[in-house]
Amino acid sequence: MSKNEVVSKIIEEQKIVIANLENSVSRYRTASDIDEHDSIDPEDFSHQEEAKDMQLRYEQMAIQAKNNLEVLESYKNKNYSTIEAGALVETEDLYLFLGISIPQFTFNGKNVITISEQALIFSLLKDKAVGEKIAIGKIENTVLSIS
Asked: Tell me, what DSSP letter sits at residue 118?
């Protein structure tokens, strides 16, 4: 399995994350855009403020997700010999991609787990090499390849 194939699938998953965030932004934008003449209940205005706050939060999350997509693209053609940001690690059971975090998914029969640089486990995995043991939760794996 090539790194480009796995990273391309991670990019696809990241695009789904971005689309979902943009849908949420749109939904909250609509909910926060109440015309004063359309509302009788004063409580509607407090809900409008909550919706606006959520819209702004999702907009920030979408911006971060788009930034992560750019970072992913930059990692696609780089190869690594130790575990660091941008590395794809293959073990017996899974692929680990270090640099961003998206929900786990399966690709060609193996789970793909992505780990951001801010995650505590990143520092525990950093600088490991092929042949070394790594622990993900309670499961220990041997690093088969790093690219």
From this structure: T
Q: Where are the alpha helices (H) located in 33-141, listed in sequence order?
A: 43-75, 120-125
CA torsion, ordered 144, 109, 95, 11, to nearest 10 deg = 140
> What pairing do the DSSP bridges indicate for beta strands 110-116 and 94-99?
parallel
| 112 within 8 A of 6, measured Cβ to Cβ | yes
**Dist. CA 24–CA 83, nearest whole Å:** 35
- The predicted pLDDT at position 94 comes to 93
Residue 135, CA atoms < 13 Å, CB-side half-sphere = 4
pTM value? 0.82
